[in-house]
Fold this protein.
Amino acid sequence: MRNDSESEGVQLISHLHSGIHVKRKIVARGARLHEVGARVAIMNLALSLGIDRLMVYNEFVKGEQAVVVLAEGDGQQIEALAGSLQRSLPERAKVSAIEWKDYGGTIPPIERAIQIFQMEHWGKAIPILLDIRDEIRSTRAELGEKVDSVGEKVDKVGEKVDSVGEKVDKVGEKVDSVGEKVDKVEKAVREEGRLTREELRRVIFDEIADLKVRVSKLEKILTKKS
């Protein structure tokens, strides 16, 4: 096994040449390697190098976060993968060491690693999506209740408006009634005034006629005495 923390990554032994089929286990460890996109970066690097068989997964090694890479292919491909690994990682990744050794187990096609990665993230995403769905449903229900409440208040306001309208109509009717009474009173006053004037004229005429009769009587008396 060989350890190397330099920025250029691991340099594999020089006897690796094109055409030699090899399997390697490469372990990158450090303070921060999980949940930073390290596995995606490694799979993209392997695809760009034409490596067909690869498995990559997260692990904890010596108390540090680690990404374990199982790679199978041409010697030069594997050497390029190990040599380019560190500088291909995301900027947020913090690597303290990269270790490698020969591997004797079976390494599946790289598509398996991609599928496992996708399923893992779907497993994380589904609960989040379900929570979002439940929150949306809850929000919709709350909004529905608020809309119903606002609708009830609008209805009550409408009823009050109708009630006020009815009262206004009743006041209008009363005003019309008072107006009619005022008209009647005014008419009665005018009629009474007319009757009073006629009555007064008649009384005056009667008094004058009576005075004329008395004057005529006095004249007759005076004429007889003389």
